[in-house]
Amino acid sequence: MPFALVSIISFLIVLSIMVVVHELGHFIVAKLCGVRVETFSLGFPPRLFGFKYGDTDYCVSALPFGGYVKMAGEMPGSETTGDPHEFSARPRWQRILIAVAGPVSNFILAFVLMAGFYMMHNEVLLYVDQPAVLDFVPQNSAAARAGLRSGDRIVRFDGDQNPTWDQMDSRAALDMNSTVPVTVQRTVDGQTREFSTELYLANPTKSDDFDLSTLGLLPREWPGAVKIGDVMPDDPAAKAGLKPGDSIVALDGQTVHSVAAMVAILNQNGNKTANLLVERGGHEFVTSVQPVWMDSGGEEPGYRLGFSGDLPPYRVEQLPLAAAVKQSVGYNVRNSGYILDVLYRLVTHHSGVLQQISGPVGIARMTGEAAEMHGWEPLVGLTALISLDLGIMNLLPIPILDGGMILMLVIESILRRDIRQEVKERVIQVAFVMIILIFAIITVNDVSKLGFFSRLKP
Questions:
Q1: Fewer CB within 10 A of the terminal residue: the chain, N end or C end?
Q2: Domain 226-313 -> CATH class
């Protein structure tokens, strides 16, 4: 099946799931609050088919890009008949609950999907349980100042003998902001020696989100070269001819075994041209790539080449319910932070952030790629992430979104009176135009990433 068709079908399936769950949240709480629901539609008019049960028309409509629940007396400007079952006749706290229910349903879906995912398919990276062997050690890092080098194997970390990376991570969290003794095994001229030093475990983040990489302790995640998973269109890696499935053997003469090591080398060298030793189909070649500065949510800003690494070797475990719930909570909290970070950067006018955001075209491409991967796991993970994103976006205090309705109801509760109807309508009109403009910009960015505009050039 052509990739474009796979992308469209998978996107519509994922979108339909998101919409049904979101609108079902509004629907259930509205019913519980005694509001008469006139329509529950998957898609936007014109209506194609459906059935009526009680007061509600359950239908499928022609435009598949969303859906809606229509409640009596909900729309601004609609005439109030005095019917107590109308949305506008219900107490404000009930209307707030109805508005919140949609985003909350998306959060619940993301949580349930990931909990089920971890119960059936928890991927544990192999290197975390293996001896702690260092990949590249960045200059001016705590590890470099302690005299550690690439290829060193840590045989003692504080009181732990022959620790794994998992054990080191747990020990470092306990020893944070203190100095610990470290002994490494180093091979020089074919001779293996032990070298002892002291390492100060500073936590530059000043939070609980501590990472050994901030100290310059980068693990060898791959036993060999780093395999490329995806190449971003029009980014430096794509322009240099790199392809998914290629393996990066070395960067600027330094053998690398992790994407983190590559990022550290790029940031250390600044905007200098990077020379890559690439392996493809059993043959090696050298290519030059000009790094670019990227500042987007989910990772520290820095120099990048524009590709994502494939997942390092792993084993699959099936977690018990309690552990799966814990993993799911961690996944959703972590990714919520990433999404909020992107929104903050967008509001504070960080350059390049808008270009990193994906709209329908970009999401369709990602769902298509996930659907074509082996197994169902990538599509489940992406569906959970999109559901989480949809829930957060709908809580933004923007009119026509759930968050906008909640904000207006809160303001009215504080004022103890309704905001004039014409004011509400004008605010909604302005917000609608702004959202359409942002939607258009994001869609143009999505299409440009596919190389569409470059093909129009003579």
A1: C
A2: mainly beta
β-partners of residue 180 are 199
Whose tokens are 């005439």? That residue is: 79
> Each residue's pLDDT tens digit in the chain (458 positions)?
667 777 778 888 888 888 889 999 999 999 999 999 999 998 888 999 999 999 899 999 988 777 889 998 876 555 556 788 898 889 999 999 999 999 999 999 999 999 999 998 888 889 988 899 999 999 989 999 999 999 999 999 988 899 999 888 888 877 878 889 999 999 887 788 898 999 988 765 544 456 788 889 999 999 999 999 888 888 899 989 999 999 999 999 999 999 999 999 999 998 899 999 999 988 999 999 999 988 755 567 888 998 988 888 988 889 999 999 998 998 898 888 877 877 776 777 654 555 556 666 677 777 777 766 655 777 888 889 889 988 998 898 888 889 988 999 999 999 888 888 778 777 777 777 777 776 666 666 655 555 433 333 33
Instruction: Evaluate whether the domain defined by 126-215 bears CATH number 2.40.420.20.
Output: no
Domain segments of the chain as ranges: 104-121+320-458, 126-215, 226-313
**Could you tell me the pTM of the whole model?**
0.69
Residue type, 262: M
| SS3 assignment, position 385 | helix
Q: Do domains 126-215 and 226-313 have the same CATH topology?
A: yes
* Of the candidates 45, 46, 43, 47, the residue with the CA atom closest to the CA atom of residue 19: 43
User: Nearest Cα to 226, choosing from 161, 318, 107, 309?
Assistant: 309
Residue 33 and residue 386 in contact, taking contact as beta carbons nearer than 8 Å: no
